[in-house]
């Protein structure tokens, strides 16, 4: 008896299985329900071939065992048209069915696709989705509600039966946003913005998590998602507004620092440009946003002045001046101005003894000159006086 119990001890962990809730297969939102249906339908289609194969494996092992002298023995058999048809046709039909099911489901459940219904019986009609901006931090989640002007950390609340449009980004590494009971998983990446649409059809408290490993504090990167009725959501927003905390750029930079198992917190006011700055990686003061940088690149860049602007400067304590670039006198770009401002500046500048300098930006051989390029404040006589020492900020 003791030997039997020892052999069956490996089954003990199975006793814990009933305590696990199959969240994916018991969803609380229409998108998650349709995803669950897709999983079940795909599994049933695959079982059409898997179950017969497993059953026939056992049957053949028993039917053609060595001790069964009644089984037929045909060592010269090598082909059966009927058997070949069954072996190839049925799996092929299943693959075609799975492909069609997956193709339709992939397009209908595209995370970027706005919802076309609240549930199976209720169309979206004219219901506007709730906007929620999500930032994956190390190691916590930040939720910004631009319409309500509030924000929260590691706690999210949305109304029941109202579409929700998440816009997501990350601060340092790629992460994955996942509320199994509501919708599918979507990645959040630094310098990029992704979108996820979902809805809750049942009130309750649900688990949200990061489903992509992101470092030391990954295991604590979880949050509670509350699905509330209209009055409950308004009360939740009022509680956040009563917190008195303000999430501005300075407070965000403190929040951005890596921390683990952060308790939920709320902010009554949020900088309206904060999420855009997080996406463009320019929350810090004096840092150029990626959108501005890409706009400059699209117009041909800053050309020769841009090269001189990022050049290494001489030490202030050492003799000499800034290192010349391509024979130019040392200068630094101190600002970017419009074409009109550039023309006014050049018109009011004192005449120079030297020949006028070509101000067109650098461009590759054979490329057309960029149109509408930003003008640059380039007069060496004015900018040489403000050249900072080596190592100082050289903002464009």
Proportion of β residues? 15-25%
Widest sheet: strand order?
A: 8-5-1-2-3-12
Task: Indicate the radius of gyration in whole angstroms.
Answer: 32 Å
CATH topology of the largest domain: Immunoglobulin-like
Uncertain regions spanning at least 5 consecutive residues: 312-325, 350-357, 369-396
Report on the structure:
- By secondary structure, this protein is of the alpha+beta class.
- The protein folds into three domains: 20-61 and 80-109, no CATH class; 130-279, Cupredoxins -  blue copper proteins (Immunoglobulin-like, Sandwich), CATH 2.60.40; 290-386, no CATH class.
- Helices cover 31% and strands 17% of the residues.
- The protein contains ten helices and 15 strands.
- It has a six-stranded mixed β-sheet.
- A hairpin with a 7-residue loop joins strand 6 (175-178) and strand 7 (186-188).
- Helix 2 runs antiparallel to helix 3 (81-108).
- The model is unreliable at 312-325, 350-357 and 369-396 (pLDDT under 50).
- This is Ubiquinol oxidase polypeptide II.
- One of its GO terms (cellular component) is plasma membrane.
- Residues 127-239 form the Cytochrome oxidase subunit II copper A binding domain.
- One of its GO terms (molecular function) is cytochrome bo3 ubiquinol oxidase activity.
- Keywords: Cell membrane, Electron transport, Lipoprotein, Membrane, Oxidoreductase, Palmitate, Respiratory chain, Signal, Transmembrane, Transmembrane helix, Transport.
């Amino acid at each position: 008896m003791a030997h039997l119990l020892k052999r069956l001890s490996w089954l003990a962990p199975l006793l814990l299985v009933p305590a696990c809730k199959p969240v994916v297969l018991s969803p609380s939102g229409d998108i998650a329900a349709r995803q669950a249906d897709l999983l079940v339908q795909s599994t049933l289609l695959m079982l059409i071939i898997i179950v017969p194969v497993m059953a026939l494996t056992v049957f053949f092992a028993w039917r053609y065992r060595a001790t069964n002298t009644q089984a037929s023995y045909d060592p010269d058999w090598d082909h059966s048209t009927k058997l070949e048809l069954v072996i190839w046709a049925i799996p092929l039909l299943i693959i075609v069915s799975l492909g069609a099911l997956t193709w339709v489901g992939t397009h209908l459940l595209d995370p970027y696709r706005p919802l076309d219904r609240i549930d199976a019986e209720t169309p979206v009609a004219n219901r506007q989705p709730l906007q929620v901006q999500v930032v994956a931090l190390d190691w916590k989640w930040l939720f910004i509600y631009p319409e309500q002007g509030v924000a929260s950390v590691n706690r999210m609340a949305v109304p029941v039966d109202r579409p929700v449009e998440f816009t997501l980004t990350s601060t340092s590494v790629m992460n994955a946003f996942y509320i199994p009971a509501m919708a599918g998983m979507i990645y959040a990446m630094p310098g990029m913005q992704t979108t996820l649409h979902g809805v809750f059809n049942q009130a309750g408290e649900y688990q949200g998590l990061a489903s992509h490993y992101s470092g030391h504090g990954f295991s604590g990167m979880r949050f509670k998602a509350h699905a509330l009725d209209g009055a409950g959501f308004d009360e939740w927003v009022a509680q956040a507004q009563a917190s008195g905390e303000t999430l501005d750029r300075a407070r965000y930079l403190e929040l951005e620092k890596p921390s683990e198992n952060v308790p939920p917190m709320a902010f009554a006011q949020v900088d309206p440009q904060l999420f855009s700055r997080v996406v463009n990686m320019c929350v810090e003061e004096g840092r150029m946003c990626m959108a501005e940088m890409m706009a400059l690149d699209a117009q041909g860049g800053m050309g020769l002045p841009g090269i001189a602007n990022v050049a290494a400067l001489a030490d202030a304590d050492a003799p000499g001046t800034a290192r010349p670039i391509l024979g130019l006198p040392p200068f630094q770009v101190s600002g970017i101005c419009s074409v009109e401002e550039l023309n006014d500046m050049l018109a009011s500048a004192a005449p120079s003894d030297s020949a006028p300098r070509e101000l067109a930006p650098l461009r590759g051989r054979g490329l057309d000159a960029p149109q509408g390029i930003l003008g640059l404040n380039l007069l060496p006589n004015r900018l040489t006086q403000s050249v900072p020492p080596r190592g100082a900020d050289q903002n464009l």
